[in-house]
Amino acid sequence: MTRPLTLNARAAVAGRIVLAMGGGYAVAALATAFLSLTLPMPRAEAVTAATLLSFPIMVAIVVVVFAARSLGRAAAIVGAIGLGLGLALRLVTGSFPFGFGS
Amino acid sequence: MKQGFRQSMAWLHTWSGLVVGWVLFAVFVTGTATYYRADISRWMQPELRREATVTPETLAASADLAVAHLQAQAGAARTWFIGLPTPEKPLVELFWRTKPGAAPGHVLLDPRTGAPAAMRATRGGDFFYRFHFELNLPPLWGRWIVGLCAMVMLVALVSGIVTHRRIFSDFFTLRRDKAAQRGWLDAHNVSGVLALPFHLMITYTGVVTLALMYMPWGVTAAYKGDQFAFFAETGQITRNRPAAGQPGTLAPVGPMVRQALATIPEPLERLTIANPRDANSTVVAVFEEPHGLSHEHPQVAFAGTSGDVVEVLSGGLQPAAKTFTTLVGLHEAHFAGAALRVLFFLCGLMGCAMVASGLVLWSVARLPKSGAVPGFGWRLVHALNLGTIAGLPGAVAAYFLANRLLPLDLAGRAEWEVRVFFGTWILVAGLGAWPAPRRAWRLSLAAVAALFAAVVVADAATARGLWDDPAWFLGFDAALLALAAGFALISHKIARYAGPRRARRAVPEPAPRMEAA
After folding, report:
1. Per the structure, how many domains does chain A have?
2. Tens digit of pLDDT for each residue in A32-47?
């Protein structure tokens, strides 16, 4: 990039990278766990299908994070999806995912 | 980043591609070589004599002989792996694992004598296979790094597709006569778009091969993390039989081999023996994949102490499991015959070209104005580009060369071949620090061409007397010569190429900023 980046712009880019990797993986992981328990098929099939879907889900989240108008907006979108999945998983399992809050 | 969707994706494509490009190039090159893993191994052990057929009696006798060797040498091991002889490789290959973290034991036996096979020690094509997803690092580190890079590549592919306004006409666009940057952009587009279905398939299926390691949370949620139970329930492996904790005696495996051969009509590939000295020992006969895309090995499991069949796995997977094994099968391409394999190989080369041209495009698009001193960032990218794009092929050639030139009785010979591989890589990459970038490219690529040519000379000079099938070895050497000619041609083109300067003088304005750069 030829135009110089301000410190703010650099921080925003770094923030998006962290959000894309961490948030993308977290949403994909939550979605995999949730779908594994809820897809209407035998258990082994549900886990396989959910695991296969997890990678396109993560790619989609990364694209959303980098396409969003601002870092804050991206964080809000990813946070909302993650929260929704976390609560849904809480309803299905009766406890918070991965031992959080238990 | 206050800009449109397409611009943000162009930015994402440029930078995500650059950051992982060097690792991806290495993964693509070694993965492409892995399509010919068995051939590379055969070329690297010219002492090997192939056989027309392997009879069931040979298989049963080989299994007994293998177990006798393992009882004596690896009694404490938790699991034994016995690779049985095939016509292409009529040897017994033994692996054993004693405890997690410790390096597995390994030996190749001659089934006729039971003694270690008299052949030069080498890792052969297996080195490229493992490097492809472990980068010669500790497995866990290597697999996570490669997986991360593969995910970034998926992102780069998706954002690259979005970036293209005219993806169809890019099929037919290669403007070599325009500015250098245009030419590189078109080369990147052609190699990327032409083989795009392959690139998408190979990247996604590559992640899928290690899906349970990268994304174990479905198994965590539904199986409390028990991956054995999950795989057994999908029908991909036989059910786990935990050790009883009491000593037991393994029954003769020869009869089990005969019974397995009578059960499944595919060639028998290997035996796995778990807890061999336990009362609950298990012998699993694993067969080759039946004809088809799917990666599913028929299996017959025996109770080790009695020799009774406890489970037979043969097809019948559910839809999602079948999808999973088909994706893995697509990645490994074991189903591909000679012609299709060539096509996969060429697509792999297109992948190498796509990554390499993308990396070069980054540095050409940011070429310092004539007279200006390049910044640190540009020099770093240039050095890494050259170190990877020329260094890795040079290392591959040197690995082959070492196989022919190192003394046959050298202690740790297989490890020395790998040392030569990395030593050469570092040497060629050192040329990237040369102050004149174009000369550095020319010299390093000429060196790679010379190395490949030297391999052919060394093969003819030292191993000709060992060739069991001269036409086959000449074919392999011809492929190496073709690689040498390709690198020599590129080096020559770089020396003669004067396009960018003229083009820049003719067009006073810099070329319009393009989508993908």
Report:
1. 1
2. 999 999 999 999 999 9
CB B52 within 8 A of CB B87: yes
The residue to which tokens 């020799």 are assigned: B307
Kindly state whether residue B229 falls inside one of the protein's structural domains: no
Question: What is the pLDDT, as a whole number, of residue B172?
Answer: 61
Out of A41, A47, A62, name the one closest to residue B218 (CB). Answer: A47
Which residue from B151, B230, B319 is facing A58, i.e. has the nearest CB? B151
Q: What is the rounded CA–CA span in Å between residue B424 and residue B430?
A: 10
A30: closest chain B residue by CA: B217
Interchain contact, A41 vs B221, CB within 8 Å: no
Q: Does residue B328 belong to any structural domain of this protein?
A: no
H or E element that contains B211: helix B211-214
Q: Is residue A59 part of a domain?
A: yes
Residues of chain B with a CB closer than 8 angstroms to some CB in chain A: 1-2, 5, 8-9, 11-12, 151, 154-155, 158-159, 204, 207-208, 211-212, 214-215, 217-223, 230, 233-235, 318-321, 323-324, 327, 366
ipTM of the complex: 0.88
Closest partner residue to B2 (CB to CB) among A42, A45, A69 is: A69
How far away is chain A from the Cα of B296, in angstroms, using its nearest Cα?
15
Q: For the purposes of burial, counting CB atoms within 10 Å of the CB of B224, is it exposed (0-12), middle (13-18) or buried (19 or more)?
A: exposed
> How many domains, in total, are found in chain B?
2
Structural domain ending residue among the three candidates B254, B284, B316: B316
CB count within 10 Å of CB A74 equals 23
Q: pLDDT grade, residue B340 (50/70/90)?
A: very high
Q: What are the b/e assignments for B113-140, b being 16+ CB within 10 Å?
A: eeeebebbbbbbbbbbbbbbbbbeeeee
Which residues of chain A make contact with B151, given a CB cutoff of 8 A?
Answer: 55, 58-59
User: What is the distance between the terminal CA atoms of chain B, rounded to a whole angstrom?
Assistant: 16
B277 lies in the same domain as B300:
yes
| Separation CA B379–CA B373 (nearest Å) | 10
Considering only alpha carbons, which residue of chain A is nearest residue B8? Answer: A67
Residues B114 and B86 in one domain: yes
Kindly state whether residue A72 falls inside one of the protein's structural domains: yes
Closest chain B residue to the Cα of A90, Cα to Cα: B221
pLDDT tier at B175, thresholds 50, 70, 90: low
Instruction: Say whether pLDDT at B204 is over 90.
Output: yes
- The reply to whether B216 falls in a domain is no
Residues B394 and B487 in one domain: yes
Q: Which residues contact A25 (CB under 8 A, 6 or more apart)?
A: A58
Q: Measured in Å, how far apart are chain A's first and last C-alpha atoms?
A: 47
Containing structural domain, residue B493: 12-45+130-194+333-506
